[in-house]
Amino acid sequence: MKALHLTGFGTEATLTDLPAPTPGPGQVVVDVVAAAVNPLDRKIASGAMHDFFPVTLPYVLGTDFSGRIAAPGPGWQIGDPVIGRLDPGTGGAFAEQIVLDASQLAPAPSRISLDTAAGLPTAAATAWQALAEIANVHSGQTVLVHAAAGGVGSFAVQIARLLGARVVATASGSGVALAEKLGADEVLDYRKTEFDRRLRGIDVVLDTVGGEVGARSRRVVKPGGLVVTTPAPAEGAEFVFHTSDAARLAKVANLGLEVLVDRTYPLADGAPALAYLGEGHARGKVLLRVA
Predict the structure, then answer these.
(1) Which residues lie across from 95 on neighbouring strands?
(2) Which is nearest to 226 in space by CA: 242, 240, 212?
(3) What is the pTM of this model?
(4) 176-228 pLDDT, tens per residue?
(5) Are 67 and 95 within 8 A, CB to CB?
(6) Which end of the chain is more exposed for a tag (fewer CB within 10 A), N or C?
(7) Amino acid 53: pLDDT
């Protein structure tokens, strides 16, 4: 099978022929249709995450995928459409086939195409974990979502609305219209408006940017309000350390979320896809089309 192979930290991953995986007890083989390119993939490839997610080189990049069951296991039959997230320490999603425990899979949503569904596992489940599980967002609240046209942010806008909240978002350029399309009640162009001068009394802030944005976000929450951050732990904020959970992913997949796709690359162009994501301008998800 073809796979995007990393042989050294800080080097460019290359498309390589590797042996097809063999399932063990309780495992399934999945023919990968698509995989999502996430910021974590770039960090792992650089070696920056080695203390948190130690990996053994050579390493096949990628965690998020969609595909079809190729070799069945408990609860799954050949051809079943599935989505899932591999452990970052093992990776493997940037390949034509993967093997994993059957319990790590969730049924793919029927409302969107299988190649698009690869964008859900980490980004959408992180947004759900942040807003529904950590912040307990509910009707009558106001939620501020930063980088609302980004991977996590685009799902957070939709999820906050589904939970009954009023959604204020920050974005820029074409991202303003995208955030409005996804359901934000108010969108601030952060290049034109300083959100911490405009806003007060926010119940929950989801900070997907970090740095000074997180510090400024603490100024806009009301007493007892909460800032939830995804990039890194920060003073005065709740950090989301995303954990894979098939039950959570199945729930998120059934919400009817729109997957905002910026670009789709073939598997052979995995390195350019990672480089594009690193520019920081993606609107929604960057995907690799495998099959």
Answers:
(1) 3
(2) 240
(3) 0.95
(4) 999 999 999 999 999 999 999 999 999 999 999 999 999 999 999 999 999 99
(5) no
(6) C
(7) 83
Q: Which residue type sits at 11?
A: T
- Tokens at residue 85, please? 């997230």
DSSP string, 159-195: HHHHTT-EEEEEE-TTHHHHHHHHT-SEEEETTT--H
For the chain, give percent helix, strand, coil, nearest 5: 25, 30, 45
Task: Give the sign of the dihedral formed by CA 111, CA 117, CA 123, CA 128.
Answer: positive
Distance of CA 20 to the CA centre of its chain: 27
Q: Is the pLDDT of residue 153 over 90?
A: yes
Instruction: Answer whether 31's CB lies under 8 Å from 17's CB.
Output: no
User: Please, which contacts does 48-57 make with residues 24 or more away whose CB atoms are closer than 8 Å?
Assistant: 49/88, 50/9, 53/88, 53/89, 54/89, 55/88, 55/89, 55/90, 55/91, 57/6, 57/7, 57/8, 57/9
Residue 244 has pLDDT above 90, yes or no: no
Sheet with 186-189, side-by-side order of all strands: 186-189, 166-171, 142-145, 202-207, 221-229, 238-239
DSSP codes, 195-251 = HHHH---EEEEEESS-THHHHHHTTTEEEEEEEEESSS--TTSEE------HHHHHH
Of 27, 24, 2, give the one whose Cα is nearest residue 13.
2
For 67-123, the pLDDT digits (tens) are 999 999 999 999 999 999 999 999 999 999 999 999 999 999 999 999 999 999 999
